[in-house]
Amino acid sequence: MPTLPQRSTELEMPGTLEMSPAGLYCPAGGFHIDPWRAVPRAVITHAHADHARSGCGQYLCLSTGKRVLRERVGGSARIDTLRRGEQVRVGDVDLKLVPSGHILGAAQVCVTHRGVRWVVTGDYKLEADPTCDPFEPVETDVLVTESTFGLPIYRWGDPQDTADAINAWWRDSREAGRTCVLFAYALGKAQRLASMLDPSIGPIYAHGAVMKMVRAYRDSGVRLPPIDQLAPATRRAGGGRAMVIAPPSAAGSRWLKTFGETQVAMASGWMTIRGVRRRRGFDRGFILSDHADFPGLVQAVEASRARRVYVTHGSTASFARFLCERGIEASELSTRFHGEEGSDESDVDQPAADSDSPALPDEQADEEAVEETS
Ligand SMILES: [Zn+2]
Known about the structure:
Layout: E1 18-20, E2 23-26, E3 31-33, E4 41-43, E5 58-62, H1 66-73, E6 79-82, E7 87-90, E8 93-99, E9 107-113, E10 116-120, E11 142-147, H2 159-175, E12 179-183, H3 189-196, E13 204-206, H4 208-219, E14 228-229, E15 243-246, H5 254-257, E16 262-267, H6 274-279, E17 284-286, H7 294-304, E18 308-314, H8 316-325, E19 330-332, H9 344-347, H10 363-373
Parallel strand pairs: 3-4, 4-5, 5-6, 10-11, 11-18, 12-15, 12-16, 13-14, 13-15, 16-17, 18-19
Antiparallel strand pairs: 1-2, 2-3, 7-8, 8-9, 9-10
The protein binds zinc ion.
Residues 46, 48, 102, 123, 362 line the site of zinc ion.
């Protein structure tokens, strides 16, 4: 069983947060945060499949994320919500949820126990995103931060430049009579991309897995351009002018061949690595991530003024080392309980950001969604 690194300081009050077989657990509050298996009480940072598992007795999330979480964990699940920044007493701790800017309803979890505050960021980004509330920095004593892109090579440009490049690609493809197929995670990235598209160029269609989450976003009050679900009868309706948004798991599928001439692209932070785009056979790669880039991670850690930092997900070792070199007490935190072979836990490995063949984070979510709707 993984444990929190044994560095007993006055900050690491027994009972605040500890690692359990189901993930991060708060004994003083009696709840898990983003548990890896069904537990009685789960506080959820966001609805991506590797953070929100079905089968828990009770869920607590940010009010803006309830609809998308419902889509993920099922209609009968009990989901309680907190408004942004609203503080509640749970057991012996004070708990509040603060937007993390990652996807709709994504939150940082703030737990205060006997005067010491812990913040668990979940996934986050600092860039503006019209489809979710912006990241809010929170000062804390102990910070548990993600580090998906915690290597200096990961630096994002201005998202508006990316939007312009995608729309220019769409216009050029339209002139050539080729349908654009843009791969993106079905929850979050796909809706953010849709909000960036210029609907005057042509019709926008979405794969069923994407469309399900488009509806959840609209139900939550997010404005998106007109998007139609791609049913068999509408597949050729775009006449080479359409933009189709699909999950990465649909790449190379027979489904794709029904569009005739296409141009295919992927929008992801992993497109920073040219070899990934080439190997996966994309015509274009647009660098766009819902995670913080390296400078964003450093900025968020410094803004937290945390005296102790745990680093989780992605480039944990190198990012923790980088923070230590800057005088911040930081270490890796293994948040993956590697269960029995073939179990849910062992199936969802983290992307190796510094390997030459990174997996794509949250792809698991899309795989599941495709199975449900194809
Ligand atoms: Zn996520």
